[in-house]
Amino acid sequence: MAGAEWIREYPLLVTEQQGPSPAEQAPEPEEVGGVGLTYYLGRWGLAPLTRLVYRPRIEGRRNIPRRGPVILASNHLSFIDSFVIPMYAPRPVYFLAKSSYFEGKGFSGWVSRTFFTAIGATSVRRGAGQAALDALDQQRRILASGRAVALYPEGTRSLDGRLYKGRTGVAFLALETGAKVVPVGLVGTNEAMPVTAKWPRTKPRVTIRYGEPIDLSHHGPASSGRARRLATDEIMAAIHELSGQELAGTYNEAPAQNPVERIKQVLPHERR
């Protein structure tokens, strides 16, 4: 399915409020470029250094396919999750980072932009509606090019350490693109770098567990809400087995700001 057509169709496949009309949509985003020399210099220089200082436990690296589209679906506990997942993977892994990291001015802005670009991050604007569709389409294009992406089915960090219900966007991408899903269980990253910390701590040791690849195609097509929900539940069950977290049994959502948002959260709808 072509990119522009795919953006138009996706809102019709879920039960949430539809995005803007085709006439209101932004032009097709540019193709995602590959990682540069800085990425490899940082990877082969920084990864051994962090292994020496932080002594992470890394399990299951061989479970990540070396070629083809792959989604690394992980629990999300800390800011450093987006660094430790790709840093110790056997192949470049892309992840989305908020656009403000790429839009800074002056020397500090250049440093931030260069760093995040070098480690395989691509810029995305957070939000609902068109911003959410653009982010989903950007991930689809990365997978269509045969690359690996890291995503968080919970949607955002767990501040209490529990594992929340997964949103169906990851499953949709896997079913739409045929990508295998490698579940990832992170243990201790929230203690190594809590929300209020500026730098990671050397204790406790962080554990990164890469699980066996999951083929979700048996659940059905991406157009099926039941298939997306069952596939998401299978991904979250695998993550739970690796992380050992307490299950929250609900979605990780920000408190509703008004009566309309409260009603939307109560009514059945698919969280993408």
TrEMBL record:
SUPFAM superfamilies (UniProt xref): Glycerol-3-phosphate (1)-acyltransferase (SSF69593)
Keyword Lyase included in the entry's annotation: no
Record InterPro entries: Plipid/glycerol_acylTrfase
GO MF annotation terms: 1-acylglycerol-3-phosphate O-acyltransferase activity
One GO CC annotation: plasma membrane
UniProt KW keywords: Acyltransferase, Transferase
Phospholipid/glycerol acyltransferase domain span: 70-189
Keyword Acyltransferase: yes
Pfam families for the chain: Acyltransferase
Protein name stated in the entry: 1-acyl-sn-glycerol-3-phosphate acyltransferase
Organism the protein comes from: Microbacterium telephonicum
